[in-house]
Design goal:
The protein contains twelve helices and 16 strands. By secondary structure, it is α+β, with helices and mostly antiparallel strands.
């Protein structure tokens, strides 16, 4: 029997509370802090095999923070669950289940040594101290494995997020000009929502000049000078799923000879990595394909991050063990960063692993140097 808490996501890259994405994946509930999902596949009553527990209602708190939906038939029908109760019943129910089942499965990802243990493990340990013979099993790989394989419906939702992202990046390109501010370009990304996106998947990065070399730059308020490169890393969300795209652009519409040299190396590395994506391949092999290109050009030390990550409900989505499988969607994002020259280049696309290879879901967003010069120059 497993338990998943809505919890509070650690680093959401948005600066606001979000439910634990395992909980969202299993329930669809996004706005109930402190909620709990109990999965008991051996329950004699089929209605009790999936149970959701919500924090008690507090009208005074809700008057300040927003009104919550009740747990009547409408709520149950909306989320497809028949057993919904308040968390005050959890201690008694979990004690009964511990006595009956004697086995618990940890579904939350394990915590780092310096952090608190995961909430499900903490609860199971408390129960094991009070009920004789309870065992705790590791099933932490189960949900990452499920979430990493995107269904056709999930793929369609992510395609909508990427299409909205394309509109935002195009707006950013057309806003680009010497003398503007990073903030002007960041505001242009609001075209995400005009194109059907539901917001930002993460805090965007818009960095010009030296700021292109800061990997997690989020100030987005610096000047854009003639001759600068501008790195735009931003993705829209749709239906809870996020895109993640990076383009590096010449502010005045023309790459310098040196900028274009670095740009073409990174683009070659990205294309080599995308070509390496297929079922059965490990991400380290995909990384190596890009790193070979960059190291051959003499810039190995300037590529200091990994090639990419899983993408889905979280921009850095659940990472399963093992090699790539059909249905996974990963980012490919090599880069070269030269602070002494104020040149930072990263190119990132969202790649679907197919049965025989891969498909670039963001191929509609221009990235050839000549294409970018044509758009920005216009």
């Amino acid at each position: 029997m497993g338990v998943v808490y809505s919890g509070e996501a650690g680093n959401t890259l948005l600066g606001k509370w979000r439910a634990d994405q395992h909980f969202v994946y299993l329930t669809g509930i996004t706005d109930e802090p402190g909620a709990m999902l109990v999965l008991d596949g051996k329950a004699e009553d089929p209605r009790r095999r999936v149970m959701v527990f919500l924090q008690p209602s507090d009208p005074e708190v809700e008057a300040w923070d927003g009104y919550r939906e009740g747990i009547g038939s409408a709520f149950k029908a909306k989320y497809g669950v028949e057993s919904v109760m308040r968390t005050r019943y959890v201690p008694r129910l979990m004690t009964q289940l511990a006595r009956k089942r004697k086995r618990f499965a940890c579904l939350h990802s394990p915590s780092m040594p310096e952090a608190k243990v995961s909430p499900d493990l903490a609860l199971f340990r408390q129960l094991a101290e009070r009920v004789v013979g309870v065992s705790i099993e590791d099933r932490t790989e189960l949900l990452p494995a499920l979430r990493s394989i995107k269904s056709k419906a999930e793929q369609a939702v992510m395609a909508r997020a990427i299409a909205a992202t394309a509109a935002g990046h195009e707006a950013a390109m057309r806003t680009m000009r010497p003398g503007c501010d990073e903030a002007d370009i960041a505001r242009a990304l609001r075209a995400f929502e005009d194109a059907g996106g539901e917001g930002m998947g993460y805090s965007p990065i818009v960095g010009a000049g030296l700021n292109t070399t800061v990997l997690h730059y989020t100030e987005n308020r610096g000047p854009v000078a003639d001759g600068d490169l501008v790195l735009v890393d931003a993705g829209a969300t749709y239906g809870g799923y996020s895109a993640d795209i990076t383009r590096t652009l010449p502010a005045n519409g023309t790459f310098t000879k040196r900028q274009r040299e670095i740009y073409e190396i990174v683009l070659e590395a990205e294309l080599a990595s995308i070509a390496a994506v297929k079922p059965g391949v490990a991400m380290w092999e995909v990384d190596r394909a890009a790193r070979k290109v960059i190291e051959k050009a003499g810039y190995g030390d300037a590529f200091m991050h990994g090639i990419g990550h899983q993408l889905g409900l979280s921009v850095h989505d659940a990472e399963p063990d093992g090699n790539l499988k059909a249905g996974m969607i990963v980012t490919i994002e090599p880069g070269i960063y030269l602070p002494e020259e104020k040149i930072g280049v990263r190119i990132e696309d969202d790649i679907l692993v197919t049965e025989k290879g891969s498909k670039n879901l963001s191929s509609m967003i221009p990235k050839q140097a000549a294409e970018l010069e044509s758009i920005i120059g216009a």
